[in-house]
Amino acid sequence: MTLEDIAAGIRTGLAGKTFDGSLKFDCGDDGVIVLSQGDATTLDRDTDCTLRLSADNLQKLLAGKLNPMTAVMMGKIKVSGDMGVAMKLAKLIG
After folding, report:
1. φ, ψ dihedrals at 56, nearest 5°
2. Torsion sign across C-alpha atoms 14, 20, 21, 26
3. What is the reported pLDDT for 88?
4. What is the maximum alpha-carbon separation in the chain?
5. Where does residue 52 rank: exposed (0-12), middle (13-18), buried (19+ CB within 10 A)?
6. 30 Cβ partners below 8 Å, 6+ apart?
7. Are strands 78-81 and 49-52 parallel, antiparallel or unpaired?
8. At what angle do helices 55-62 and 3-14 cross, to 10 degrees?
9. Which residues contact 42 (CB under 8 A, 6 or more apart)?
């Protein structure tokens, strides 16, 4: 599954929901997904919060197969920027 496919799935999942702030999933060489203003795009830009993780772990996270807090503690996800935005994401996908 490409990051564009994942972004399309996120866009579908965000329909009818609100997400304040901006957040970037940074999957290294695989690319990025940016959540901002109710949309998900693969165009890179500055965001309030960045989550660095593998594309595989991103898929697991969004499918509910990877607990965000456990993943951070195990080093599978590295968070930089506004932690409050990351917490909002956890509630949105949780």
Report:
1. -65, -45
2. negative
3. 86
4. 32
5. middle
6. 3, 54, 55
7. antiparallel
8. 20
9. 3, 4, 7, 31, 32, 33, 34
The C-alpha atoms of residue 83 and residue 71 are separated, in whole angstroms, by: 15
Distance CA 22, CA 65 (A): 23
Pair 81, 48: CB distance under 8 Å: yes
By the 8 A CB rule, do 77 and 69 touch? no
Q: Do 67 and 55 contact (CB within 8 A), yes or no?
A: no
**pLDDT, tens digit (0-9, with 9 covering 90-100), for 29-82:** 999 999 998 899 999 999 999 999 999 999 999 999 999 889 999 999 999 999
With H, G, I as helix, E, B as strand and everything else as coil, classify residue 75.
coil
d(CA 8, CA 94): 19
